[in-house]
Amino acid sequence: MLAARGDLEVMMLGGQVRNLTQATVGEPALSVLRQLRVDVAFLGTNGISAEHRFSTPDPHEGAVKRAMARCAAQVFVLGDASKMDNEYLVRFAEVDEVDALVTDARLPQERAEELREAGLAVEIA
Length: 125
Fold this sequence. Notes:
3-stranded antiparallel β-sheet, single chain, alpha/beta, 4-stranded parallel β-sheet
């Protein structure tokens, strides 16, 4: 759908596609990301915590997410309230590397305030 729009340029990353998540990982993807500068990155997360920040269980996905965050002018992490207080093996972003967390209204207000106090903008969608 996006490729059909005339006002956008759609690029695909090369590399291995993980069966479970359909994420593209590996050196070919990382190589491309080292060369790019994108306007906005939307990154999914498995875990959100004030201590471990944004995390994923897979080191290969974590590397690609970290590389995408570094090449983006703005970074938005998407994670529903069920991701809160989950910590996984690989941290891919710190609070100061993310422009905002976009989450749902099930996130308790006190948890949103804790994240805001840590310096993170929290958007409830």
